[in-house]
Amino acid sequence: MAPPKRKHSTHFTASKRRKVAQKSDVVSDKDTPTPEEWNAMKSFKRFQVLQQDDRHTFTLGDAVLVLPPTGEPGDASMTDDDFWIARILDIRAPIQEPTDSWDQPVWAKVQWFYKPEDLVGKIKGLKRGAYGSKERIASNHEDLVHFSSCEDIVQMHAYSEISSKNSRPTIIDTDAFYYRQTYDVLTNTLTPLPKTCLPKCRKGYNPDTNTMRVCPSASCARAFHVSCLQDSATSSSIADSPNSSRTLVGSSPKQKLKQKGNEKKIPNELQTLALLPMLKGGPHGVVGNVPFVRAALAILRDVRSGTRTVDPDWQEKLNLPDGVEVQDLVDAAAEYESAECPSCGATM
């Protein structure tokens, strides 16, 4: 018979006192609860920390900035990149009920996100240059962290480079953290990244420095370095090819974007967006215009198959970043010519 699930209580508030993070392979803390002490504690859904006039609420599942042993509380010179980052899995304290005069330690069980440089030398062939500055590596490394080490909440996105008809890449802000891989501390292994670019290319994808072209075919969706495609790119410009034979998302290679009877019902701006080359990395951002072009292609596919009409507010439903318009995406892609996918032959 399975043991009963532990019930979570309400949150409580505490004043913040300095206590550095644990991270077991770096620094030990004699006050860290033993497994027996941890199991005897009461579980909570969240806790609040008071720092002078600021109140921070930390909740189960949050990605949080954790003060490292070398950091000082209130150090204004520290940026988010200077902190450790972890995901809160559980929150417990050795009390029965929260009170206004609470003066007991609160501990959070966390799962660490590694900086890529932390694993250089541990993982064969791993190079820091293959990762973006905001990129971290998830792990199954768990520790108990004192509540006072938690500084703030941050955005941490799981970014999958694999796209399909029913999945669109997460939109990642320029100041948000993200991860593509997971590190298993027990086997000292990393989950692999999807194959990128041409067979002879070994550069991988660094979102900060590499500009990539992505195949629009859902069955392929492979990404290629722009520099690797320059020699094989076709000479016709996307702007000069309004009737491009680009494959529809989720369709067979034989289904193309062709003129049909309901063509007048489709806004020109939507068609232009659907025909843009899919770009990501470098000045285009981690995921670039890929989620928006895929969304436009999906709308066209459904409209031309008769399963839907174009919503008047289709642009709003694209969820473009604040201050970004469709025309901005068009302008950013203007310099790129159409090319044939070296993997499947679709027009990119």
TrEMBL record:
MF-aspect GO terms: chromatin binding
Annotated stretches, region: Disordered: 1-37, 234-263
**InterPro entries in the record:** BAH_dom, BAH_sf
Q: Where are the transmembrane segments?
A: none
- Gene3D superfamilies attached here? 2.30.30.490
Biased-composition ranges, Basic residues, are 1-21
Polar residues: bias regions: 234-253
Q: Which SMART domains match?
A: BAH
BAH domain boundaries = 56-194
Q: What is this protein called?
A: BAH domain-containing protein
Native species of this protein? Exidia glandulosa HHB12029
